[in-house]
């Protein structure tokens, strides 16, 4: 425990980390809010019109509401509809009603579409079970959930912070001739390696949680995150999701995937740092390996790469059935399983190398 506190104290004294952390958090918030600012302030009137119509139809999906929307569209076309108080002409109301109509058409027809889809794969039990009995029975504006679960820019910032925070973890000790002193003590020889391993994983967890929770709170305060228990396939972007998850369940699964992916990266950086005696070389080597893994995650080997867990919002839509280890998996399940194995293997390698650093 004392050695772990020692690592935290060293991190706290490195002002550059805190400058980067605050700067990247602010930059991430700015990028995250870009869509909201465009909708809320640049297209203010259209935003208000959409809110005006959406508020009137939030609730259970029904044929009566579909008919009511159709009547409003007909009245708008004939010029008999009283426009919303935010309208300057019919274009805003026309856009809002069409968007509302598209949402209700999607929600009301989803169950039938899934039943037709299942009829093509009656012999595939995994697919049948994945899409069995799906219904979309509730309407709300789920734009916030879609935006939150599709946002990816913070992944780059978290990787950068991990490289800066952990690259000196061993190379810094060597550069300052502290490693020799640590190895002369019994606790240093036996426990410092485990403390650095635990510290590396905690750093990945801390940065991931900090960015993810800040995005969740920001989304809730801007776009809003209504009906967190609604099915994630209530929006067309997640129509073919292969796991029966609610919106909050999808966000939690993606958070877990990020924690595993970044923890794996932290272990790689720990191993790389043990190879170099120069902090700068350790930082560049770590960044190079991270960039390579990100590139591979876009290739055909993505399912065997833990960093592919950063793109679970895409992998969850892949309905292929893959065979591995004598079992069948959806791609995201295989990616998650392999990533956990690689993470544990990395931990074992760090423990095995404790006498070689």
- Overall radius of gyration: 25 Å
Strand order of the largest sheet: 1-2
Strand content: under 5%
Low-pLDDT runs of 5+ residues are none
Order of helices and strands: HHHHEHHHEHHHHHHHHEEH
**Gap between N and C termini:** 21 Å
The largest sheet, given as strand count, sense and whether it forms a barrel, is:
2 strands, antiparallel
- Give the quaternary arrangement of the chains: single chain
Count of helical segments? 16
Mean pLDDT across residues: 83
Tell the overall outline. flat
Give the helix proportion (percent range). 55-70%
Work out the number of β strands.
4
What structural category arises from helix and sheet content? mainly alpha
Please provide a written account of the structure.
This protein has 16 helices and four strands. It has helices spanning 2-12, 15-32, 34-42, 44-57, 63-78, 90-119, 125-131, 143-150, 153-166, 168-175, 178-183, 186-221, 247-273, 279-296, 312-315, 331-352, and strands at residues 59-60, 138-139, 322-324, 327-329. A two-stranded antiparallel sheet has the order 1-2. Strands 3-4 form a two-stranded antiparallel sheet. Helix 2 (15-32) packs antiparallel against helix 9 and helix 10 runs antiparallel to helix 14 (279-296). It is flat and about 75 Å long. It starts with a helix and ends in a 5-residue tail after the last helix. The relative contact order is 0.11.
Can you tag this structure with a few keywords?
single chain, two-stranded antiparallel sheet, 16 helices, 3% strand
What are the SSEs and their pairings?
Layout: H1 2-12, H2 15-32, H3 34-42, H4 44-57, E1 59-60, H5 63-78, H6 90-119, H7 125-131, E2 138-139, H8 143-150, H9 153-166, H10 168-175, H11 178-183, H12 186-221, H13 247-273, H14 279-296, H15 312-315, E3 322-324, E4 327-329, H16 331-352
Antiparallel strand pairs: 1-2, 3-4
Helix pairs in contact: 1-12, 2-9, 2-12, 3-4, 4-6, 5-6, 8-12, 9-12, 9-13, 9-14, 10-14, 12-13, 13-14, 13-16
């Amino acid at each position: 425990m004392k050695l772990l506190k020692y690592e935290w104290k060293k991190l706290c004294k490195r002002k550059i980390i805190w400058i980067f952390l605050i700067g990247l958090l602010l930059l991430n918030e700015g990028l995250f809010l870009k869509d909201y600012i465009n909708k809320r302030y640049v297209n203010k009137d259209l935003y208000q019109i959409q809110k005006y119509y959406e508020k009137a139809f939030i609730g259970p999906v029904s044929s009566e509401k579909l008919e009511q929307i159709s009547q409003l569209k007909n009245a708008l076309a004939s010029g008999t509809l009283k426009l919303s108080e935010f309208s300057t002409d019919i274009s805003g109301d026309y856009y809002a009603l069409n968007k509302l109509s598209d949402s209700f058409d999607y929600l009301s027809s989803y169950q039938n579409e899934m039943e037709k889809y299942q009829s093509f794969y009656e012999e595939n039990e995994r697919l049948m079970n994945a899409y069995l009995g799906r219904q979309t029975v509730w309407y709300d504006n789920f734009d916030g959930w879609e935006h939150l679960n599709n946002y990816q820019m913070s992944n780059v910032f978290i990787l950068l912070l991990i490289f800066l925070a952990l690259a000196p973890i061993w190379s810094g000790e060597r550069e300052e001739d502290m490693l020799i002193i640590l190895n002369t003590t019994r606790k240093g020889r036996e426990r410092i390696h485990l403390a650095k391993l635990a510290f590396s994983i905690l750093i990945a967890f801390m940065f991931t949680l900090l960015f993810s929770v800040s995005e969740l709170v920001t989304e809730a305060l801007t776009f809003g995150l209504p009906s967190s228990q609604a099915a994630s396939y209530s929006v067309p972007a997640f129509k073919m999701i292969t796991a029966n998850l609610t919106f909050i369940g999808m966000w939690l699964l993606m958070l877990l995937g990020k924690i595993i992916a970044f923890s794996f990266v932290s272990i790689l950086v720990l191993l790389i740092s043990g190879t170099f005696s120069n902090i700068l070389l350790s930082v560049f080597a770590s960044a190079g390996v991270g960039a390579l893994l990100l590139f591979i995650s876009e290739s055909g080997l993505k399912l065997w790469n833990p960093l592919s867990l950063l793109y679970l919002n895409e992998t969850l839509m892949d309905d292929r059935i893959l065979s591995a280890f004598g079992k069948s998996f959806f791609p995201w399940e295989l990616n998650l399983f392999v990533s956990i194995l690689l993470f544990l293997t990395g931990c074992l390698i760090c423990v095995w190398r404790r006498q070689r650093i």
